[in-house]
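Weekend entry, working from home. Most of the wet-lab plans are on hold until the incubator is repaired, so I used the time to fold the two sequences that have been sitting in the queue since the last round of cloning. Logging both here for the record. First:
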Amino acid sequence: MTRPADRPTPDRLLREAAARLDRRRFLTVTSAAAALAFGVNLPSAHAADAELTPRAIGDDPFTLGVASGDPTPESVVLWTRLAPRPLEPGAGLPPAGSVRVGWEIARDERFRRVEQRGSARAHAEFSYAVHVDVDGLDPARTYWYRFTVGPWASPTGRTRTTAPRGHRPDSARLALVSCQAYEDGYFTAYRHLATEDVDAVFHVGDYIYEYGIDAAGGDRHYTDRTLPAHHNHETTTLEDYRLRYSLYKNDPDLQAAHAAHPWYVTWDDHEVENNYAAGIPEKNQDPAPFVARRAAAYRAYWENQPLRMPRPRGTDLTLYRRVHFGRLAQFDILDTRQYRDDQANGDGWQYPTPESDAPARTLMGAAQERWFAEGLRRSRATWNVVPQQVVFSRRRNTTAGPSKLSMDAWDGYPAARERFLKAVDRSGVKNLVLLTGDVHVAYALDVKRDFDDPDSRTVGVEFVGTSISSDGDGEQKPSNWTTLMAANPHMKFYDGRRGYTVVTLDRHRARADHRVVSHITRPGGTLSTAASFTTEAGNPGLHPA
């Protein structure tokens, strides 16, 4: 029998798998390697792992806080990850073994009315992460939860289940967030978000960034601490990605927002590498090592998010999913990164060509497109909300003549966008709301049936949330503000500061409040509302609130 100390590490297994691949086979096995990342040393395979004592743990293991996610009317996932020394490789815990972690969920913050309690095993194979899928809860109810290990107790988290499927609640409030480059500034927006009254947070990508972070924390300019040197290189291995999540989740503002609200998360590109497409790395790179890198990044993502255990199906690790807030809203959370065709015309902002306009090009992949269309067809919700990654609406960057367009956004996949809009048409859905991230600015846009015709009917609205920190403090009117507002009449709002968006849905209208922070390159930024817009149920189109 293989002893725990002799087991090959996941990083080693993934590197060896990649080394056996040639370029011809690369694209057909990329996702198989991702499945390998989740199949290496599953906890159930090592239930007899030696259980660590409090002395072996040594210090408070709850340095990364707590989180909850993917709530339904009856259930929610509770998360924590044990890390006594979070910024060190291994986080201060042995490379083999397990820890028994107690958990409880209650109807009150003081835990006088405990609803359920139990224990879970945190295994070294999954970086001592804990995912507890608590079932049998009451719908539309607020709960509090916590974890314990030996003499240590975690911070208390607050979560909430959704409304039952057949019920139509009066309203729902949610927050849209994305893009939080640690090295670009403080997560001040999250400190403010923690105090908002929202039912859930939707994170639509770029939770981490893969670039190296210097000893001063980049533009945070630390003077009271020095980050270890191993953070100052690009993430490529499983250990790299685990350390990067530890650094981010060690941030107190991010911890506060996770502890305050349940989250639904999906990824974009920087959780792996900038502008990768399915199994294809960024341009001018050898694709073969990317097999192991993407698999490692996907595994670390699941370890560090309040997600249910993924169930690989063939070559997919499915992250897209459907959520219902009773009959008030259906949320179709998309993955526009894992299944897309490579960006056309060399990526970036380019003039459209036959390559970008090819009718077979996809951003979602055929299976996800079918799933999305069928979900719309079956929807009976007042609002159909689509949290997704990249800007859906047309963005011209000139007021006259042909315009370059973003090849990484839906503009670079016009045939895919047309299939999306046809699915909306065929379903009869009237109240479409897209929630988007990626571009580090806030937009409010009318979604036109034909973006080449300004008089085309409006079929929905798109709220693009700005970044939490990526690109630093930003400015209210970036240098291209006048041009973009003039060149895109369906664009009703554009702001380049950091922050988040609060979306309120009721039976008659949807409202978006774009919150902005005064600054994030130093602590203490203040919060304000830059603009608010509404759209009426049955009458799509944005109006200032």
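Second, folded right after the first finished:
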Amino acid sequence: MKKIIVISFLCIAAASFGQGFLHRDGQNIVDGNGKNIVLRGLGLGGWMVQEGYMIQTGGFAGSQYKIKQKITDLIGKEATDEFYKAYKTNGITKRDIDSLAAWGFNSIRLPMHYNLYTPAIENEKDGQTTWLEEGFKMTDDLVKWCAASKIHLILDLHAAPGGQGKDAAISDYDDSKPSLWESTANQDKMTAFWEKLAERYKDNPWIGGYDIINEPNWNFTEANINGCDEALNAPLRALQLRITKAIRAIDTNHLIIIEGNCWGNNYNGIFPLWDENMALSFHKYWNKNDTASIQTMLNYRTQYNVPIWLGESGENSNVWFEEAISLMESNNIGWAFWPMKKIENLAGVTSVTKPAGYDKLLNYWKKGGEKPKTDFAKKVLMQMAANYKMEHLTIRQDVIDAMFRQVKTNDTKKYKNHQLPGRVYATEFDLGQNGYAYSDNDVANYNGTKFTQWNKGGKMRNDGVDIESCTDINTNGFQVSFIEDKEWLQFTADVKEEGSFDVEIRYSSEKAGGKLYLEQDNVRISESIVLPVSGGLKTWKTVLLKNVILKKGINKIRVNFEGGNFNLNFLEFKKH
């Protein structure tokens, strides 16, 4: 009888998959036609679950409930509700999803906060479970937009009832209340939540899967508070198994994705697996991009004949992104990077502009002192919410280029149309990999305990080149700084007429040692020129590099820094 039930289930599942649902086929994730699919995704972090670091409150208000308390203290409950309504309305729109599809993404990971769908247990009566329309409406809209753009949406429970980890900001955990692991009521609510989602989306093929629980990090029996030394993880296995069974009683169509402890990566005690249509998620931050870094997951894939998926990664340089994605795709592993939007976001596809006056709010929240006036604070916060609209974002084309084009080729691409004669700003060097478009000594953070800042200035671009704001009179707003010996930059320029050029080099320095020359196709096209001390890093001078011969048409010009210790604003090419 048991065999008949299993066979029946598999037949139903196979028939459903044929209608277009992503599903497991051995070690692969495939579409409804059985074709292997590599998920190229982005996580919509910060939309349903605010994390303090994304809005620069991480040092004093990391969790969403603390952020909301700070805002309410400033502007009152009614205005706070108005702010959050605008923040969520603008946070993700159809235009965002259309843009992601145009850039090359085929999937989205939605980090959900349970409290948009159902109240906290302390707000329920007699242990009942009631439902809120807001979260379901947000999700319904997102599914509709994803379907229109042919993007798969993976539902991720990022903030579970009570919170699932000691890393509080991730799951909005409040340690004054029972956690997910300390409350049967919270576990019951989480199960009911997944049942509700399964009922609502069981027939929708654009739902790519159910990521049951994001980054659990809890010590059940061992010492490490984030569960990294847990050997059994029995409560985590039991809860995910329970929820899988609850989903399967309703929905036999969708892929179920599970995560280990220790921010998703500790799978001790989780095996054996319990469902025919599952995938294992792992998360990867701040380590090397070699096979050894993912070998444990590769072993699980082989041993348990199950697909693996990089469910979250990012917060690094373009160099690291290209390496990580190349590693994943060469091993047939899909990925979802993180996040789409945050304030002053260098390492993401978009950046939200910090509103004027916001630093005054941050300073008050952090240090106290004179309280900003209510009207002022509300105006600043509403401007912040408006800045989340796609039309107000800064699009990080360099990040998009690294994630998609640079994964396929080491060819360089012009960052901007440079016409010579004319001015070429130093920060507008070519798009491409380190060693091809530029050469810099510090290009990524590979260490989880000792942070390496790849762009020491943290401005404009996410490459290894160090960029700061520029104080010179003539500027595009930025300068290349912290230049070291033997580094270089390449620029693609269109020369109108072959001939000899004089090049004005605009620089600043407080130390001796600056020296550079120009090169094309590994051949010098100029002499070396020394850059004398200008009198300070904000004191700008110009030196002239004479008789640079350039051919007509496209030239790839490399500026080689024989010596560093200076800032570079621009090179201006003037025809004899």
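Plan for Monday: verify the second prediction. DSSP finds 13 helices and 25 strands in the chain.
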